[in-house]
Structure prediction request, 855 residues.
Amino acid sequence: MFRGIQFIPPDTKIDFVGLRAVSWVVSALLTVVPLILVATIGLNMGIDFQGGTLIEIKTKESPANLADIRGQLSGLGLGEVQIQEFGAPDAVLIRIASQPEEEQQQEAIGKVKETLGDTVEYRRVEIVGPTISGELIAKGTIAVVVALLGILIYVWFRFEWQFAVAAIASLIHDVTGTIGLYSLFQLEFNVSSIAAILTIIGYSLNDKVVIFDRIRENLRKYKRMPLVELLDVSINETLSRAVLTHVTTFLAMLPFLFFGGETIFGFALAICWGIVIGAYSSIFVASPLQLILGVRREAWSAAPASAKGRGPAAARI
Amino acid sequence: MLHFQKWKLILVAVVVAAGFLYALPNLFPASTMGEVPTWLPHKQINLGLDLQGGAHLLYRIDEKEMIEDQLDTIRGDARETLRSARIGYANLSPDVSKRAVLVTIRNPADLDKAEADLRKLSNPINGNVLGGSSGQDIDVTREDGNRIVLTITEPGLLHRISSAIEASIETIRRRIDALGTTEPLIQREGRNRILVQVPGISDVERLKKLIGETGKLEFKLVDESADAQQAAVTKQVPPGDELVNSDGEPPIPYVLKSRTLLTGESLQSATPGFDSQTGEPVVNFKFDTNGARRFGKITRENVGNRFAILLDGDVITAPVIREPILGGSGQISGNFTVQRANDLAVLLRSGALPAKLTVIEERTVGASLGADSVESGKKAALAGLVLVMLFMLVGYGLFGLFANVALLVNIALIFAVLSVMGATLTLPGIAGIVLTIGIAVDANVLINERIREEIRAGKSPFAAVDAGYSRALITIIDSNVTTLIAVLVLFWLGSGPVRGFAVTLTVGILASMFTAVTVTRVMVTYWLRWARPQAIPI
Prediction:
């Protein structure tokens, strides 16, 4: 009977932790470069966080005459107006800078519809006033912080604090890496980007937990094995499942990049990228960090021993 | 260990069957659901605004305007109170930033009486039975010796906002219902906001105009003695008069007597119609008994003059009173289109909004984009499903097949739960289902890899499968809980599409813990018992 192909051989002996001289540099770059990108070219802030108006139209003629639309709208005195093709030659995305007052945004959309008239089909209109954009920035930030804290507490509760710290450090690595992707490709950063980041935070932790579980198991099993070796054994033992779980999720999401449509492209790309960077950080960030944080072996080996020892101690009293 | 108690088996079978049964209606077009017997499940998943098209409008009620209005009332009441008590006062003025009306009492001897009298203006707030707000709506205090301050209290203001919002919601509902759209959602959000969601609407500008207009109708007399053209230039009007423009282009100036004779509140009905002579669209209205009496009196006393009909402060029409109108019915004409006459009648029927509403967030999706999104979502989800199933089959053979069957059960369960909950499916929601597909088989990857490991360690098929399931379970729970923590935060963060993602992912992950672990385990167990293999094909 067909047994299935073992994509990753069970007996790998890759010296992952030994590669840490290289992997630290890579991880540092994955964390620092995005920050530099954000500081220099910045994020393409969507109207969710910046306020403003976004209109997606479909023109009757294909391709759309962008210059003509630009000419018509720039005369309306609405401040900065961006016009770009959006996924198809006859689809156009119009972005109008935030107006100081909510009423003015309503007037602006009225003027645009009057100007373009019935020659186009309005596929999507989004208007976010200054009040809402301010709230969304606050909520988005709080959401990411709360998710990280929640996970910190859960991992701390289930494992030792060193695991929790390592998990959070590698999650921050994943988050900055993802923000870097948004900056590099100038993908629109909006509420669904925060949703993508939260999903990455949650999902990326999955196989960190798998490896942590194995490290814990091995700490009990191999009492005298040096920590470097023990970490390597643990990673190699779980390598197959850590990689394959990511492959399945990646395969599931991949078609969304190609068929999901323009509105959800950034979201799908971020999640696909997050799956990859999460797999990397499980092996090269979360686990080697244990070396620095110094997992205490006693915490695991001592627990059953002290339980056993309690009997005689009680008897002594 | 590889033995299932009968009741457990039955439970699994029942859940799986129910999952398919309740997911089934989603395979059929909505129109056929009426023919399904009522004892069968017939609920379908609602499509979100991003998939079926529609408008999402978030309104904020104008708190400042409400405060100004109430301060005006308080000032009037205070003047009345002090006059009737014959108490000398000065500097009676509102202070919007302090939310208060200030008044200086001339004679210090009157202070106590003035304070006691003004205190009567303050009313207790009728909090609801379940506690809620309580206390007085106005706070009366003394300041700087001879000044009395009447402040609108925070509970008082909140109470007013709440009632204004409730009244607005009712008004908006009547207006939207008149458009004949299906199932609009109109609800309060936070302190001073109203969320309006109308699926499937195409003319959003009309909807916004219909909701956003205050709809305050007033009847005033035109001061025929004043020259409106001249007044428009000089901005000078006789005392007791005011200068008002018509709402047309270019605006026509009118000098009106400031006193409002009648308002829209006296209307009994308003219907669109056509003028019998010119054939132009008009709105026919009818006053209630009281209104009719007053309208009759006014028209009798002002034959030959013009009276103006104002909507939200603009003159729409100012016809000449040719004869007394005693029947209480009349007609508003003003170069309307048929649609405008219709909408105006709706506005007048639904009553005025208690305060101005401003759109602070708008998200509308056209029906065609929605349909496109459904198509692309379907295509992407199917492709993802096929890829994952192929991968599992190639990677784990028969055990991959078990995982794939469980995956289909999982998807059925997601649709069943969403249908029963009446949840809304959005495009990110479809992405959530797809992500679940990936995460669900992760559990099987963990289990199968563990079984492989146990076999390598020399365990028998039964023991290896048993150990594989029980050891992987803790890891599966751990990893799913962390994902759920992050996703639960999303419920709080997002509205609409993003919340749809959180919903499907949460339901999917919870369902996957059942399908990927329990359902596959039942299949594996029965296969082991039936085939009694020497080695496990994994």
Observations:
- The CA atoms of residues 189 and 427 of chain B lie 24 Å apart.
- Chain B touches chain A through 82 residues (CB under 8 Å).
- The longest strand of chain B covers residues 357-365.
- The mean pLDDT of chain B is 88.
